[in-house]
Protein: Clp R domain-containing protein
Amino acid sequence: MFERFTRGARATVKGAVAQAERVGAGSVTEEHLLLALLEQEGGRAAFAVTALGLHDRRASLDAAFAEARRRGGLTKADTDALAGIGIDLGAIVSRVEGAHGEGALDADRRGRRWWWSGHRPFTPGAKTALENALRVALGRGDRFIGEEHLLLALTAKPGVVADVLADHGATYTAVQRALYGSVADGGDGEGDADQGRAQAG
Structure:
């Protein structure tokens, strides 16, 4: 599949590895893919990121990801579901951090296998995002996978990255509009996640 990636998409994947290395992460995640996209210059994805104002809100994105890591990577839907059955995730995080230190629920703090292998593995979520980028490209009739397909795939896959992007105004439909100037179904923002999931597989 990697041979179908454009130069910019390959640079994004390499940039994600560099992001993981920079912060000492044990694996490459969807978050690292997004952060690498934010550092790309030129190309459709960089234009969309700028048009959506994500560059200007990088500190806010970083804070949102840090908070998600503190929650053990649980999404808003997960947190809401737990609250619905009477479980206060904030209280649990506080108790765990009180006993084991700040960031104790950060999944990346556990098991650093990469140090002896020489490279960091991609998490299942990051691999799925890369596979979904192929599906997005094929769904649009494109022969190659570009950074724009990676960006769309990240907004389409339910999870922390899609939640954080949506909170910053970068839903699937908003990104598609920024990339291509229109939305194929003429949508009004309703059903963003469903449309993105359908296209991403």
